[in-house]
Structure to design on (829 residues):
């Protein structure tokens, strides 16, 4: 059996346009302001990518499996609060981190329970959970946040070669590991199958509830680790942090070709989506666009990028069809 | 003069295939014109072009001499063309009358919907067709057969001149089919141009006046139904004689040990169902749609819960908790609805085949993709799946090839299937592929696999199965052996009144 030709593979690669777009965005802002590619600026892009990147890894997998977690930002924030509270109570750093991870796992289990057992849509459940974590965090911290200090801060403030921040490295490692898991393990494949067709997957021996539980717990844990890193970087666990975390992560994932309907996407696209979004936001700051317009531009980017992708996909289909016609005539 | 639909030089290509190639079709008003051909012959493409769903690459068509150039479904409707697909195009939560008049609801002077007139107009149409349907009933609450009738009435209401049916009987039971034929008869009397796509020979001879055969997207013959034989039609469709489909089967003659015993099985839909079968045996389940056959299959496979009774498989009582348990024990199900229940359409042939054996393809926790692909390659070779590559997404395959992908999934070397449950395996599949699947079923039996064969097509059940069970309203109402079962005897059991 012959494999698909390299040409069709490239034509089919959804992320090609996005890679080009990311390159164009970076080049554009570099021309506008040479400072855009300075060490400081690159570090700040990487820092920004680290939290939304962690969240996007978990969210992408959930989306591929046909679920969503709108509480992922709140779970990250609350994970940070748990960690900071444990440190404040005098617990050693590893114990505090494990406490945060445990919180993340429990949060995932709670989501999975409502989705699997009570059959409530994850969209609704997680809107509710997000509100609960945020409210609880404000209450528990007296709305002030919990400061952290000492060796713990190294997790968030050190950088490899003085330029690549530790949180970014952690995020990149997660991204690569999950790229492998999605591609080369049975559970990774099962995620695609339940997202593509839950009923058919079940009738072929996949246990959709088990897989759903795993992806929710996985997402909670990743979010909590992201929250720990954010807390270390900010020197404080703040109940107002990561408020837009879920939406930013979803935007990056979908921008990177992860299907909102489930069953399609991957870590490579997810990374390019992240890069494009964060380079763009930082670029807007580099050209001194007022903050409010940054939000406008950010929203416009998402919508324009997805519209372009739509037209590209249509163009590709037409090209392939025309090619086929040519072949027929020969 | 009678109405006339004339299609000339119609061509349409898709990536990798020329679906229609210079097709010529002439259909006249007051006659039913059958469109026949194997899957992939181009019938569906033709209907989609007629319906304005897709555009032709070349060619023209005209109605009563007037050239048609529409390119949208709305354009097709205003040109007087209605296509009634297998998948209903209705709004299930709305009422019958709202569906029939969708897009043209009668309004009163205030611009509000005039419900009393709507109801009156709908009742008029229902009466014209001699049916008994409440105009206010929601469409979703109707049986599939009645939903189809609503669609026909909708086409009639639109004053469509051309009405095309895409395998209208595929999901209807025998009794419902005769009502459908009554409706088509009315449309014929009204002088409509009727196109009728079906794989069922008996229907073609029963209802149509002309037959147009397509093969590989080209015209392969046009006949008057009254002047053509079944053999001639099949020859035109497949380009060769396939003789008597059933007589040539290489059957299994040796039954093995007891394989499956079901005793007093009860579910929401089943009442005290009992039967048993042996290795290498093919047992058929016949009955009307909704008789409980699919429910029985799903209960054995643990896709749905059971309330009572006993299942003994391979000599031991079993209580599967999920389809996965059933699969591990050696049971496989090819569900009736391939697209919704059987396949992950947006993924490749390879990935669809490997789902149940993913855990067997692991080495040091990683999937052996080369080995996975080998499974797919083998299935493609063994079942002659027509595809340029195992990477092709199954959504792009024809129905017959999709079914073969499912068979390939359950019968590869990594599987240990002892019982294969086939729920309507030939539904919507062309004659040539059907014959292939019949032989496969016999091959499975020869290999000692027990086969449960559920079908609404009477001829195939009574000719393939060794033993035929007839079901009605969740109960088994009869057991016949091949040879003693006739279409009449099975139908009588399927429709037997309570008592």
């Amino acid at each position: 059996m012959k494999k698909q030709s390299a040409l069709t593979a490239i034509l089919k690669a959804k992320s090609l346009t996005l890679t080009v777009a990311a390159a164009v965005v970076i080049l554009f802002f570099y021309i506008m302001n040479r400072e855009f590619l300075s060490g400081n600026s690159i570090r700040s892009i990487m820092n920004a990518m680290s939290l939304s990147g962690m969240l996007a890894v978990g969210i992408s997998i959930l989306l591929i499996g046909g679920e969503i977690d709108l509480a992922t930002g709140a779970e990250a924030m609350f994970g940070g609060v748990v960690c900071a509270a444990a440190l404040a109570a005098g617990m050693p750093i590893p114990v505090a981190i494990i406490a945060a991870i445990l919180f993340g796992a429990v949060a995932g289990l709670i989501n999975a329970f409502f989705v699997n057992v009570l059959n409530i849509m994850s969209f609704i459940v997680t809107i509710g959970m997000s509100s609960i974590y945020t409210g609880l965090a404000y209450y528990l911290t007296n709305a002030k946040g919990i400061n952290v200090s000492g060796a713990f801060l190294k997790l968030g403030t050190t950088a490899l070669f003085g330029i690549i921040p530790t949180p970014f490295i952690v995020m990149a490692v997660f991204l690569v590991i999950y790229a492998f898991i999605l591609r080369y393990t049975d559970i990774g494949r099962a995620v695609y199958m339940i997202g593509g067709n839950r009923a058919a997957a079940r009738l072929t021996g996949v246990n959709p509830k088990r897989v759903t539980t795993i992806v929710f717990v996985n997402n909670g844990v990743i979010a909590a680790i992201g929250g720990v890193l954010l807390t270390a970087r900010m020197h404080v666990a703040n109940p107002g942090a990561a408020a837009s975390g879920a939406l930013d992560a979803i935007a990056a994932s979908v921008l990177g070709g992860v299907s909102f309907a489930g069953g399609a996407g991957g870590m490579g696209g997810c990374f390019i989506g992240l890069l494009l979004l964060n380079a763009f936001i930082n670029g807007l700051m580099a050209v001194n666009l007022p903050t409010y317009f940054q939000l406008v531009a950010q929203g416009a980017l998402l919508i324009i990028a997805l519209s372009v992708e739509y037209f590209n996909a249509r163009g590709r289909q037409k090209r392939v069809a025309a090619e086929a016609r040519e072949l027929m005539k020969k | 003069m009678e109405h006339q639909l004339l299609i000339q030089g119609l061509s349409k290509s898709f990536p990798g295939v020329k679906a229609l190639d210079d097709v010529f079709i002439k259909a006249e008003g007051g006659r039913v014109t059958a469109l026949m051909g194997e899957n992939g012959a181009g019938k569906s493409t033709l209907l989609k072009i007629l319906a304005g769903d897709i555009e032709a690459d070349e060619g023209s068509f005209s109605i009563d001499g007037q050239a048609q150039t529409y390119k949208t479904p709305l354009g097709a409707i205003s040109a007087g063309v209605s296509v009634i697909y297998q998948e209903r195009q209705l709004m299930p939560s709305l009422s019958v009358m709202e569906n029939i008049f969708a897009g043209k609801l009668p309004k009163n002077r205030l611009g509000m919907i005039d419900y009393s007139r709507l109801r009156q107009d709908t009742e008029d149409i229902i009466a014209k067709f001699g049916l008994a349907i409440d105009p206010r009933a929601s469409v979703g609450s109707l049986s599939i057969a009645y939903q189809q009738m609503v669609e026909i009435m909708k086409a009639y209401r639109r004053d469509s001149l051309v009405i095309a049916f895409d395998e209208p009987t595929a999901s209807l039971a025998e009794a419902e089919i005769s009502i459908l034929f009554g409706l088509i008869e009315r449309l014929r009397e009204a002088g409509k141009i009727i196109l009728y796509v079906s794989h069922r020979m008996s229907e073609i001879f029963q209802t149509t006046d002309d037959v147009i055969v397509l093969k590989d997207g080209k015209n392969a013959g046009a006949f008057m139904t009254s002047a053509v034989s079944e053999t001639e039609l099949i020859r035109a469709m497949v380009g060769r004689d396939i003789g008597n489909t059933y007589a040539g089967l290489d059957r299994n003659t040796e039954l093995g040990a007891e394989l499956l015993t079901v005793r007093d099985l009860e579910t929401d839909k089943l009442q005290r169902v009992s039967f048993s079968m042996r290795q290498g045996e093919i047992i058929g389940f016949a009955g009307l749609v909704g008789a409980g056959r699919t429910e029985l299959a799903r209960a054995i496979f643990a896709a749905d819960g059971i309330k009572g009774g006993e299942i003994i498989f391979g000599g031991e009582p079993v209580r599967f908790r999920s389809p996965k348990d059933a699969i591990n024990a050696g049971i496989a199900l090819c569900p009736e609805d391939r697209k919704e229940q059987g396949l992950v359409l947006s993924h490749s042939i390879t990935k669809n085949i490997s789902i149940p054996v993913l855990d067997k393809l692991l080495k040091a926790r990683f999937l052996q993709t080369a080995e996975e692909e080998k499974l797919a390659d083998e299935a493609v070779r063994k079942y002659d799946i027509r595809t340029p590559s195992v990477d092709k997404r199954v959504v792009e395959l024809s129905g017959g090839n999709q079914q073969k992908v499912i068979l390939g999934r359950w019968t590869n070397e990594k599987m240990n299937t002892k019982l294969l449950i086939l729920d309507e395996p030939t539904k919507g599949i062309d004659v040539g592929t059907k014959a292939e699947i019949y032989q496969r079923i016999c091959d499975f039996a020869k290999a000692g696999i027990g086969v449960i064969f559920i079908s609404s097509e009477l001829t195939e059940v009574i000719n393939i199965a060794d033993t035929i069970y007839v079901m009605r309203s969740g109960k088994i109402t009869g057991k016949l052996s091949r040879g003693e079962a006739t279409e009449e005897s099975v139908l009588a059991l399927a429709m037997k009144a309570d008592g």
User: Anything to note?
Assistant: Residues 112 and 213 of chain A are 5 Å apart (CA to CA).
